[in-house]
């Protein structure tokens, strides 16, 4: 008769998770009628929905913060090239309590990876501007002789045609020359596809920034939830140690009174050691979680963040599973980037074909020069003017044609290769689409699971706390042993850890759904009036938790012979 409520509860819960209740009586086997299913609706293609070259839409996401609010100005990221060289420069001097909103603001302003992605957007924009410059003419100025001097003297003993001696040949000339050239591509078959590919890469860079912004916000939220659960583990460990100290105190008192055995004292000491391990693990996880959050936020070297908000459920996810999947398909920039990869591959294919098509340029050249000086055979030659000057100007205008008539089939092969790359990206689109749906479904089901776990673990904590209270009363009355108290206390510690973990996992799944779908339809929980300090078990709050000395591992590694060691060793 005691199992009947459990059976009724199972019959109530099973239909809610998608199972059908079994019939009470066996029904006669009948051939099931084959229902006529409606024909599946034809799915539209992604280029028809998003366009063959989708553009980045930053309005689907709240813009990132550019400046820190007044309360966080002192947490600005240090210089990217700063490197501490002294221990005092990395010593923690401040524990700064932060909320979830503060963490998201800091990661948007300080995170170096996000800044690097923003720099990549600017690089892609500069590359696009460089390709657009192909539409403009190029003008260059070349002045190699600005100026040059040619001077020399040459002696020859040969005779000229008139029978006279050639004698000395003297040269003394100053020259200046400059060439101004202009070229404009009238026909360039590779220009348009190159600009199109650069523009698609620019859109990809902007999409990548949105993806990075979503990812950094998610990482910040997950790191903050990890910090909260580590804080809860520390609290649970402290309460467990206090409770174990009370149990050990009672066991020693009963043993001295002669109503308990040494075994009960040893059991209490064993449970105290287990709870101290829980506290030690919690303190370690807390320190690691704090520094992991500080690294993500790129805080100053002497600041460690702490959580100023208690671990609680953030809210409930309002959209259905189907609405979440469709929203993910519409807002995820990863799908747009795959479509842009297809467009880039097609542009590269057109560029490959354009390299064997005719190129036609119009060229203009202006050459100007000036000379001063003279070259003569004999200084005594009559009529020589040593100050001769001359100048020249030359204009050149023409068309230049460049046409590769045969390249061995390289252009056609490159064209086919880029078309194959575009086909490969179509399959990657299907892979990305399926991965997005799996992400949404996995986190949606994880959210439901953690929601149920919060309910069950909270009931477990409440019932285990009451069981521990009754076990203590039974132990003090002498109707039970210390083993029951120890087991119940261990169950309470594990139940509280599972409860805090369920809350953290629920908040993480909720944050992932917001990241993967682009939706922000979350029903916030009503704020509860909680006391300033966490409630503690009666009689346990007055027991201080003393810090345990850190014994070197070489001395504390083996429990054999510990009883024979002198105190303090």
UniProtKB/TrEMBL annotation:
Domain of life: Bacteria
InterPro entries linked: OMP_efflux, TolC-like
Compartments, as annotated in UniProt: Cell outer membrane
Stretch forming the signal peptide: 1-21
Compositional bias per record (Low complexity), positions renumbered to this chain: 29-48
Keywords of the record: Cell outer membrane, Membrane, Signal, Transmembrane, Transmembrane beta strand, Transport
Coiled-coil spans in chain: none
UniProt-annotated stretches for the region Disordered: 29-62, 530-569
Pfam families xref list: OEP
Major location (coarse): membrane
Stated family: Belongs to the outer membrane factor (OMF) (TC 1.B.17) family.
Protein name: TolC family protein
Organism encoding this protein: Cyanobium gracile UHCC 0281
